[in-house]
Amino acid sequence: MGKIGFVIPWYGENIPGGAEMELREVATHLQRAGVEVEILTTCVKEFSADWNENYYAAGTAMVDDIVVRRFPVRRRDAASFDRVNRKLMQGVQITRQEEQTFVEEMINSPQLCEYLNSASSEYDLYVFIPYMFGTTYFGMQVHPEKSVLIPCFHDEAYAYLRLFRQAYVKARGMIYNAMPEMELANRLYDFSVTEQICMGIGMDTDIQADAAEFREAYGIEKPFLLYAGRKDAGKNVHTLLQYFAEYKKRYDDDLQLVLIGGGKIEIPELIQEDVYDLGFVTTQDKYNAMAAAELLCQPSHNESFSLVIMESWLCGRPVLVHSKCAVTRDFAKRSNGGLYFRDYFEFEGCVNYIRSHPQAALQMGENGGRFVRENFDWAVIVEKYKDFFAKLTGE
Prior knowledge:
Elements: E1 3-7, H1 18-32, E2 37-42, E3 59-63, E4 66-71, H2 78-89, H3 96-104, H4 110-118, E5 123-128, H5 134-139, E6 147-149, H6 162-168, E7 173-176, H7 179-188, E8 195-198, H8 211-218, E9 224-228, H9 237-250, E10 256-260, E11 275-279, H10 283-292, E12 295-298, H11 307-314, E13 319-322, H12 326-335, E14 338-341, H13 344-356, H14 358-376, H15 378-393
Parallel strand pairs: 1-2, 1-5, 2-4, 5-6, 6-7, 7-8, 9-10, 9-12, 10-11, 12-13, 13-14
Antiparallel strand pairs: 3-4
Helix pairs in contact: 2-3, 8-10, 11-14, 14-15
């Protein structure tokens, strides 16, 4: 297999974010398996930085033993972009010209596109991630016949843009993180002549967790529900807090709620003594917390994968997810590793079932762990990537 060029708007060792983390892990594991990979990106630091600022020097660098080629960004009209982006976020229909403004005034690098064209003979495939940025939209049009997209689609306004639909159907291949994402993509786009695969995201499945160690370290002896992740509105944590408060009003028992992860959220006064907000903890403490919990609750409506529910299963505990998230609901159903809720009373019923059926809860955790190891262990994912790339290149 020849060289694979992964194209992403920004790249670094400690950049947070699902797509960024996914690419770092994929590139690293493929390289360890003998695949030659390079990262092709811009000089911008990260998503939250100024997209007009070339933070890194242009040129070639080594990041974790992987070649990274950085290219300067073109200056953009941020105000024009923001006007269109606000309409999209508010669900307002935009014109074709506004779509053009959106793609032209976001992060773009003409020099990156020029390199994709001039150096194309050096690469078997270009793999772009994620779908909504200029590096992907314009980059995939350079050589669509050797372009593969890892879109990280959500059911959101950006996915419906006509310009995206026209460009991405010419891709050589599509790689999805979950089956509902693949189903959404094929509802919105005509990929009838594009090779597609539901790949998933690789994981290190050799997790060791100690419930007793967590309880001793944090002094939490009572049974608890666990939330792990950012504490912001986009993750729907406020709904979990509201439902937990209602549960405590209806059931005068000792159930607690433990929150781990960054961000701040207001805890309702009624339950302040029953909620432990631990903030950032070590990875091992996170695993220990998962093993100690009655269940892990992932209330988000909008996930393209969800590493934390996979980790909970590897720690032997069931999960509770929101029905409105097609991806996490699908994982819970296919694995038989958890339950899902749409409203408070379903939440209450699920919590009570898991608490009152400890053997069933253990079985769900075991089912989920087996599902993760069979589908998302890195050894499995690397072979799927190699086979898919070989199929696309005719090897």
